[in-house]
Amino acid sequence: MTSTELAREALPQRIKRKIKQGMGPWGVFLEGFLRNPVMVGSIIPSSRFTINRMLSKVDWPSCKLFVEYGPGVGTFCQPVLDKLPRDGMMLVIDTNPLFIDYLRSTIRDSRFVAVLGSAADVEEIVRAHGHEKADYVLSGLPFSTLPDGVAPAIAAATYRVIRKGGAFLVYQFRPKARSYMAKHFKRIDDAIEPINVPPCFMWWGWKDEDEG
């Protein structure tokens, strides 16, 4: 292949890279969605209204470990880090290496850890990072489109890993996730955030102090 042919072959890749760089995190998010829409769930990151409302029930002074499933390009990450105590940790888990690489390269906070892996393995991941339990777990994973058996496994593992008094925070565009949560969490708060594209369901599943 001649140098001219090589240059022609490389041109689409250069154009693609320039477009992605110009779009910033939106470009990374769009690419991640196009590569694996089943695991991302939405083509548009959550609105600030959704972020603020989802995090409003967290008792930040007592939070030592905050876990997020499917962080994407970090829409929730900085808002969480802004509120997290100085001795706390934010642990995010994603199966998409594109998102994990992006987060590792852009978030420079010693309290932040990004792990390439499955949310179903949250217990092992939490222990590997020096904790036995998580205070809160946040998820925007599309439960209704996950492969068979994955959503129930995630819900069960999440219940086990959350400490008493903690909560599972879930936002979704379909109501299916609540049924998985209800198998484990006796008390669930419900809400809908209309200022989001699309509007989303929100749930807070609480692991009460008197639970076994």
TrEMBL record:
The keyword Methyltransferase applies. It comes from the Bacteria. One of its GO terms (molecular function) is methyltransferase activity. One of its GO terms (biological process) is methylation. SUPFAM superfamilies: S-adenosyl-L-methionine-dependent methyltransferases (SSF53335). Keywords: Methyltransferase, Transferase. This is Generic methyltransferase. It comes from Novosphingobium barchaimii LL02.
